[in-house]
Amino acid sequence: MEQPHPDLFARARNKLWDDDLWPLRDDHVFAGPGSGETCAVCDRAIESAEIDYEVTCPRHKTTVHVHIVCFRAWREESQRSA
């Protein structure tokens, strides 16, 4: 399994601090083929050959798309800030 690059942790942490992302507590995640959507962590498109995680904020019902490795960085940064 691919390990997140240290830059991804910093990006996720900054987006959490800026309230662009929310702390992951109860993961509401659906996986599917890449949709071409922009990843909420790394800001790159999620290509069709990649897996796209759709993550829904339980409080606001907002959905974002992320790469698997970006999701892992986001989840780990959420746990550190808890």
Strand order of the largest sheet: 1-2-3
Largest sheet: 3 strands, antiparallel
**Run of helices and strands:** HEEEH
Say how many strands there are: 3
Counting DSSP H or I runs of 4 or more residues, the number of helices is 2
The portion of residues forming beta strands comes to 15-25%
Protein structure class: alpha+beta
Poorly predicted parts: none
Instruction: Using the CA coordinates, give the radius of gyration.
Output: 12 Å
Distance between the termini: 25 Å
Average pLDDT figure: 91
Instruction: Choose one word for the global shape.
Output: globular
The percentage helix is 25-40%
Structural commentary:
- The protein has 82 residues and is of the alpha+beta class.
- The protein has a domain at 6-62.
- The chain is 32% helix and 20% strand.
- The chain contains two helices and three strands, in the order αβββα.
- It has a three-stranded antiparallel β-sheet.
- Helix 1 packs across helix 2 (68-81).
- The longest helix is centred in the C-terminal third of the chain and has 14 residues, at 68-81.
- The chain is globular, with a radius of gyration of 12 Å.
- The mean pLDDT is 91.
What are the main properties of this structure?
about 80 residues; alpha+beta; about 20% strand
